[in-house]
Design brief:
single chain; alpha/beta; seven-stranded mixed beta sheet; three-stranded antiparallel beta sheet; 15 helices; globular
């Protein structure tokens, strides 16, 4: 019997192993993947196979939400809380912060953890990587993408760092990168560090607040893009100000000017309908633990094929150099159950009816915002066509013991948010924006008018009751 000279197979032209010399010979092919994973087919081959060629791996944990406790008949609103693990002690109108996993998706992840421990080597060496490829193949169409262009990551922060690191390799001294004043603060730090390393100018485009129109944002960016601009980052939905930005128009504008674009979509999946292929940005990064209601530790990075080769994961491991999926699918022996549970999340959203759920969330947030603004005699931060399931509503300055003419600072916002939390058991962020105080309300399928009535009553009570004046120190050296 002919046996290759090494465990990985003796070299032959074009790769593979030598042909058998005699009838009946058995050829040992060695490892088809990378490292010591016991696979018959590489992950890069699995992700690129046509549907007619692809074989779904054996899936040990059911992805059917009904088998993980999902109540299919629960109506949107307070009845839907039965499908979440949220406690009843608080009025929870802050889904946008860190999300909240649905019960069936959480239980699915737990089941994968238990299954892995039954025989860790079998699970990790022989099953995990094909399963992760299968999740990508199932999830990619949900966001209008090809599985070959999408990889899973622990967080959007990891994806943003990955893209910015890769893009910076092409920057030269004197280039310019663009971001917005309403962008996520950690992204500004990522850009500042890379710009300083390469002698590149970071231009932060000021977005006037309150916002009057999407046109104003596009025009501000248009004026900021000069001949040296090479790279831009825009939020799909801003975190601190809850603005749905006109990313389609911003991407098209940057394309016209030869500027590559990264979209930070941390809040988008679940809140907005996505078609990443049609959007045509260069890169798109998003979380799945927020509005898509997966366990924390689930996110993805999408990249146009022309950028695959330049992307390197922050953690280099066995699959590096063999394609995008291969490079990112394994970054060490950690818990991948949050990603595997995405299979159940997909089916939860199908049972909800994705469009119907998003419509409920958006309409609930907007209706609540209108009601709150009327009760407090205030206004919202942006026009309705720049909002979705989160809205910023101005609160009376008297809540923090200051006059309407006085400037509000983050300390005032913290005082109001802490009071809502400790006194009224309401979880709702309060922001100091353009020297005024705003609540950022969120609405998911479990939220209901009663949540916002509680918030309305609490703020009105704080406005009408002397809860103490907040003393804000503005001295650089501290206050006595």
């Amino acid at each position: 019997m002919s046996v290759p000279e090494s465990g990985a197979g003796a070299a032959v032209p074009g790769g593979g192993v030598p042909e058998a010399q005699e009838a009946g010979d058995r050829v040992l092919a060695g490892f088809a993947g990378f490292g010591s994973f016991m696979q018959d087919t590489s992950v890069q081959t699995l992700v690129t196979q046509h549907a007619d060629e692809y074989t779904v791996p054996q899936i040990a944990v059911s992805s059917d939400p009904l088998e993980h406790g999902f109540e299919e008949t629960a109506a949107f609103g307070k009845e839907q809380r039965c499908n979440f693990l949220l406690g009843k002690e608080f009025f929870f109108v802050n889904h946008g912060a860190f999300g909240a996993a649905t019960k069936p998706v959480f239980e699915s992840a737990q089941a994968w953890r238990r299954y892995a421990e039954l025989q860790p080597l079998k699970f990790i060496d022989r099953e995990l990587l094909p399963l992760l490829v299968h999740v990508a193949r199932e999830f990619a169409p949900e966001v209008g993408a090809a599985a070959t262009d999408l990889v899973f990551l622990p967080s959007a922060t990891v994806g943003l760092n990955t893209v910015i690191n890769a893009a910076a390799q092409g920057w030269v001294e004197g280039d310019e990168v663009i971001s917005l004043s309403v962008g996520y603060s950690s992204v500004r730090k990522m850009l500042d560090i890379r710009c300083a390393e390469h002698g590149v100018r970071h231009i932060t485009v000021e977005v006037p607040l309150p916002v009057t129109s999407a046109d104003a944002v596009v025009e501000a960016v248009r004026q900021a893009i000069g001949p040296k601009a090479r790279f831009a980052v825009f939020d799909h939905v801003t975190s601190n100000t809850a603005l749905v930005l006109p990313v389609n128009r911003l991407v098209a504008l940057c394309r016209e000017r030869g500027v590559r674009v990264l979209i930070d979509g941390a809040h988008a999946p679940g809140m907005l309908e996505l078609n990443l292929t049609e959007l045509d940005a260069d890169w798109y990064v998003a979380n799945l633990h927020k509005w898509y209601c997966c366990p924390r530790g689930s996110a993805f990075l999408w990249a146009k094929p022309e950028h695959h080769e330049s992307l390197q994961p922050l953690v280099i491991s066995h699959g590096s150099g063999d394609g995008l999926t291969s490079a990112f699918i394994w970054d060490g022996n950690r818990d991948y159950s949050s990603t595997l549970a995405v299979l159940t999340a997909i089916r939860v959203w199908r049972l909800w009816g994705g469009h119907r759920a998003r419509e409920y969330m958006t309409q609930t947030a907007r209706t609540a915002a209108e009601s709150l603004a009327a009760a407090w005699d205030t206004d919202v931060l942006a026009p309705w066509n720049m909002t979705a399931a989160m809205v910023m509503v101005r609160v009376p300055s008297a809540c923090a013991g200051i006059a309407e003419a006085d400037e509000a600072y983050p300390a005032h916002a913290k005082f109001v948010q802490d009071t809502l939390f400790h006194t009224f058991q309401i979880e709702c962020p309060v922001k100091a924006v353009a020297n005024r105080l705003y609540v950022r309300i969120s609405a998911h399928v479990y939220n209901h008018a009663v949540d916002y009535r509680a918030l309305s009553s609490a703020i009105s009570t704080m406005r009408d009751t002397n809860l103490g004046k907040v003393v804000v120190c503005t001295k650089g050296g501290g206050c006595a």
